[in-house]
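Researcher: I'd like a structural prediction for the single chain below. Treat it as a standalone chain; there are no partners to consider.
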Amino acid sequence: MDYFSIFKSQRDFYKSHQTKDISFRKENLIKLQKILKSNEERLYQAIYIDFRKSKFDTYANELSIIYAEIKYFLKNIERLSKPQKVKTNLANLLGESNIYKEPLGCALVIGAWNYPYQLTLAPVVSAIAAGNTCMIKPSELPENTMRLMAELINNNFPSNYLYVVEGGIPETTEILKYPFDKIFFTGSPKVGKIVYQAASKNLTPVTLELGGKSPAIVTKSADLDVAAKRIVWGKFLNGGQSCIAPDYVLVEESIQDEFLKRLKKQLEEANYEDGAEHYVSIINKRNFDRILGLIEQEKIFYGGKTNEATLYIQPTVLLNVGWEDAVMQEEIFGPVLPVLSFNNLQETLGRINKLDKPLAAYLFTNIKAEKELFLQNISFGGGCVNDTIMHIANENLPFGGVGNSGIGNYHGEFGFNCFSHQKSIIKKAVWGEPNLKYPPYTEKKLNWLKRLM
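Model: Treating it as a single chain, here is the predicted structure.
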């Protein structure tokens, strides 16, 4: 396949200015929504074959988010596209100042395997809404979802507007050479650095949605039943294969035993057995083996059962874990939850700060001062107080990382801005301009300039 020819055709189509038309953008958002809705059963089947994700989870955690993004833009695209009037400073009177949002041009979206529909198509929705053309590279690991997305988009949209590239590392390496106007990547920090380096050769702006070790902190003032229930849900959703899942739990030592009882109770009630509709498989054998390598048998508090044939790993809670253990050296990205204790919240936040900045962080407490300490003392992409993961479900909040966990953000208006250039324009009157900025320069002019500026 000659991907470069497709890239050039997308760039040429963008230059025709057709994608900038608001009605064109709306028509294609509606078209994409109709294609997805009319093929929902096929979407459910493909992702179930890839890693046993249920219809409920696929709708709740993938398709509903894409539909919500489309709905948001259909309602708000005119407002987002209008020039934004801002104040004009004294030096530019008589004049008017505006910010024009224009599409960046030809974009590349590289999706991730753990939420293959959401993390591939939600950025594409933003790219369409902002007026771009787009080349799309889903992850090849869930190959059935990749093939279905390619079929649905490539058979229904012209390749000079939207096009899905199938394949793996060779295809991704090839298209990363092209001088895109924007690259949006979701994946690991390791691969994110490769994408960033490739983009730098063409000075292409990037948004990198990465990951990291996201902590959940439980203090003695917390509602332990709520904390246990929401941590279990957030951690073991998608088999622990979520970039914003709680990676480990820090629990105040005086309540550790009680918290562990509640945690175990929640796990038993949730019943994450092999084949359960609400529990997915590990994506492949390589990740299955990697996760097993992080489990020290003597530290298992709960779980530990596995089935290589179905790539099943039971939710596993580890105790007596130290900061230097292997499970604390990398993002787990699987159903293993280390539990560590602490006595001093301030010191614990300091210890978290010694690690790379995480994509998410969570605090369970009922004390206002502890909430403020948490929010003011550690840097992370986004998170929750007394919940996990749910910040991703609000399109009015930017979603993204910081430092090692990512660059830039998206969702809603932030997604529109992600794929737009903000062009600054001053419109000046042709009369009434003071003569200060023109030569010859005098001491009197300088004095006036100082007063004005």
